[in-house]
Design a protein that fits this description.
mainly beta, 147 residues, 7-stranded mixed beta sheet, single chain
Length: 147
């Protein structure tokens, strides 16, 4: 699955079983259901390997589901970085303690966004950043990360 350029693609089917990866190169991929790698979800059933979810050119993976979501999927940041956004009615938790992948040669920005200030998106990634700085804002957390 590839999202290229501006625009929004919404995947609301929780049973997508395609096993290929997802590339979000600009634009927004909305997912109503996220599951662990290897299980059907809005973004398919690829493994949790970082290579199967590429955020590049500021591309956004946006959780829009109801309730809390937990996934062990890792992701790769490419040139221009990317955004993980929780806009559902619950929290979004990435639980894999493995390393984020990098396909960019220079440091990039990963933005973590939540629909409300009460949501603390991706707590583990906030604590396990690789290098750079962490700037807290009301609803957005930016991490400058690199290899």
């Amino acid at each position: 699955m590839a999202v290229n350029g501006a625009g929004v693609v919404s995947l609301i089917n929780s049973g997508n079983s395609y096993s290929g990866g997802n590339t979000i190169a600009g634009g927004i991929l909305q997912a109503s259901y996220l599951a662990n790698g290897g299980n059907n979800s809005s973004i398919g059933a690829s493994s949790s390997a970082a290579a199967n979810l590429l955020l590049t050119s500021g591309g956004t993976l946006q959780y829009i589901g109801s309730g809390n979501a937990t996934t062990d999927r890792l992701f790769t940041l490419g040139n221009g970085g990317g955004v993980l956004r929780s806009s559902g009615s619950g929290t979004l938790n990435f639980t894999n303690t493995g390393a984020i992948g990098f396909s960019a040669a220079t440091p990039v920005t990963l933005s973590l966004m939540a629909a409300t200030p009460d949501q603390q998106p991706l707590g583990k990634y906030r604590q396990q950043r690789r290098d750079g700085h962490f700037a807290a804002q009301e609803r957005q957390w930016d991490l400058a990360v690199g290899q």
